[in-house]
Fold these 2 entries.
Entry 1:
Amino acid sequence: MRAPFFIFSDGEIVRNQNTVLFIENSGKKKRLPVEMIGEIFLFGNVDISKNLIVYLSRKGILLHFFDFNEFYLGTYYPMEFNSSGKTLIKQVQVFLDEQKRLMLAKKFVLGISLNVLAVLKYYNRRGKDTLPYIEQIERLTRQIVSIKSHNDLLALEGKIWECYYKSFETIIDNKDFAFDYRSRRPPHNPLNAMISFGNMLLYSYVLSEIYKTHLDPRIGYLHSPMDKKLTLHLDIAEIFKPIIPHRVIFTLVNKGIIKREHFKKVDGGVYLNKQGLILFSKQFDHKMNEVLLDNGKNQFLTYRSIIRKEILKLEKHILGISEYIPYISRW
């Protein structure tokens, strides 16, 4: 599986015969191994040309763009070579059927809740007093099956996340990384900055994997496509937030890898600085390539492979081949 490539400096990406070079403004050059790259994450102010985009398109390489404060701007991907009219029609039919859409959305929320519980129980076994949060989320989880409307399901999901986020200070136990409350645009402290950045990285990874299937990323079931242009990757990413970006945060903070010095204040918000972005992205990519035993099968997979498999499971559900069951972490 081809790997991601991160660019944090300002400069220019140019095609050099049958390869690609990144030239920093300082003049430093770095060759990009295009045959080994699946996507490029652009955080710096980088110039690109049409000639380069044509070349990257032929290689099937995606470009993810972020602004100066790490917010995701968008993705360039090659023309929809994997698109399928049959699958698109099925996706729309499931969305328009209120009961089918609600059933699928419930599965996503169940996946969120069970993976949240897996994280909390993991740290409880390691001496962190997360039992009050476990008990509360277990009570909320039991309510999922009886939910009758999409709005009520979203409200329940919000309660699950709210309770879970309160546990962060227990898991981290570091006054420099107090949670307080969830804030997004802008994040008001380092912990919220990492949550937002980790989520955006995860969204980009999931979106890349969706583009490799026949599914259309514009049609989601938990998140409404009426509110956003792309929503399916948000649905799938929710399941993996507790076990990928949040575990990355706990590792970085509890091991002292990331510190207050790796953040900056801009326009009333707090964001990772360049060194912080590098540290976080490196740990995130390491997590994505972590090898673990797939649930119930004698098969070792990376998290990236598991996400790809999750999307294929969803596609089979939409096509009526097999019922979708969300991935649940086992530790």
Entry 2:
Amino acid sequence: MNVALIPFDTAAPSDGSGVRRALRRLPLRDVLQLAVVAKVEGTATLNDVSRELASERIGAELQRAGSPALRRRSLQILSVGCEGITTPGGWLIASLKAPAGRGFGLALGHARSAPVAMHDRATRKHIGSAATAVRAAMRRAGLDRKAVELVLIKSPIRLAGGGPHVGSTAASRGAAALGAALALGDIYESDLRDGSLCTDWRLHGFRAMAFSGTETDCCEALVMGNRRGGDPLLRVERAVLSDILDAAPLAALAAGAKAIFFKAGIGRSGAVRGARTTVLTSELPPDKQLRAAASGVVGAILGTTRAFISGGAEHQAPPGACLAAVIRAAD
């Protein structure tokens, strides 16, 4: 497997010019699967249409560049919110046809679950759907559980039907994260209870970053890892940060980084290293504050504003911890 990694910037959610230029650099006839992973500027509220505008434009560019078949082989992982010093944009990440090789490097695959009914969202069935999507993506990537370094997973939001998780982006992310952890063997089915979601913080993975969205009705997973037969020119690497100020693990990922992913979290008390903050108590939504803060941390340590930064690490890491990952050039 060869992998193409092509960056692009956007001037607005509806701007497709960067994606169009990136697609021109892609050998479309050789594409097995394509993922468009991007940060979109917008308010990130439930009624924000920025993600829909971006998704529609990207879909149109995919169809223009290739065909409906290319669009069917593609997956969009879009996350709204570029607070701080994050440059809106992202990457095309594509698996390409290549002669079978024995080199060790990056491999990837993506998959979707069946639609998750509204009344099943933020329940055990939602968690199971996420696990199904991750397992299917692993098969397409040719990766076993131990070889998976990073899962990016998009998850639908419960918008109706009553219950404690209606309108909760946190519950959407948490269900996806628990499903990914289940698929990767980081937690077990016997660990889960009907009320575990967003209550039992002992349950978490450490290899998945989860994102919620109103534009999807299913779980959509992109899985990346390193294996024999992968692209020997690229690697994916990941680190767990004890908190948002834990610079050393992030700095260790810097060399040769070509794409950067960061999931920002904070403990349930809102404190960082024992000091009170107002992240969870001010008039500003916590996710916005976390994205802004993380953009400064990532920018200072890695020297770039181009990073996929998301807030809300529910069940994705130990409470208060953050995740970071890079696709980098192989040594």
